[in-house]
Specification:
It is a single chain. The chain is of the alpha+beta class. It contains 2 helices and 10 strands, in the order H-E-H-E-E-E-E-E-E-E-E-E. The protein has a single domain, classed as Porin. Strands 1-10-9-8-7-6-3-2 form an 8-stranded antiparallel β-sheet. Strand 4 and strand 5 form a beta hairpin.
């Protein structure tokens, strides 16, 4: 029961932070687009959340396997011209990129588990990418499923009562699939 209360409190705090970040348009880096993704949405974003579950394979080895799920949002308001197959469009625009990763993960830990663990690892799986473009009263949206991977490195600091603090950097990369709003297959990448 205590675990359920903690999970509910964490979700409430995450939703509250998401709402506050959305209303303030925070520019602190949490997810930063790279490569072709930056051509569509160039701003960093705090929007979204994730869940990582990791389980040790063997008590004698510092290796985990797990699952990572998330909802990552990149958005931008701009007036720059965007080019489509049928022409170009200018005006005040809202651009959104919603990424939903579903990944199987593996990590290796270095150091002393009672002090500070450094870890490296990654994940492989699928990303559902929803690209949305709004201008005036018109909205265009494209949804595609992509095979993807991410490498990750970070540190894990033990706290009290079997809780740990994770700080990590993850490079999400979704390979080309389907068509983007410009009519071409596109890959997506961003730091998280």
């Amino acid at each position: 029961m205590k675990h359920m209360i903690v999970i509910i409190l964490v979700l409430l705090v995450a939703v509250s932070a998401l709402v506050r970040a959305r209303s303030r348009r925070s520019t602190t880096t949490s997810r930063s687009p790279t490569r072709a993704t930056k051509d569509f949405v160039g701003e960093t974003s705090w929007l979204g959340f994730g869940f990582d579950g990791r389980w040790f394979v063997n008590a004698d080895r510092p290796v985990t396997v797990g699952i990572a799920l998330g909802w990552h949002v990149l958005d931008e308001e701009t007036s720059e011209t965007i080019v489509f197959d049928a022409g170009a469009l200018s005006g005040h625009q809202h651009r959104y990129l919603n990424s939903f990763p579903i990944m199987l993960t593996g990590h290796y830990y270095f150091g002393d588990k009672d002090r500070l663990w450094v870890f490296v690892g990654g994940g492989a799986g699928t990303y559902c990418i929803i690209q949305r473009f709004e201008v005036g009263v018109f909205a265009f949206e494209e949804t595609n499923w992509h095979f993807g991977i991410y490498p990750e490195f970070g540190v894990q600091v033990p706290l009290q009562h079997d809780a740990d603090l994770f700080v990590s950097a993850r490079y999400n990369y979704a390979f080309e699939a389907g068509e983007s709003l410009n009519g071409q297959a596109q890959d997506y990448s961003y730091w998280g």
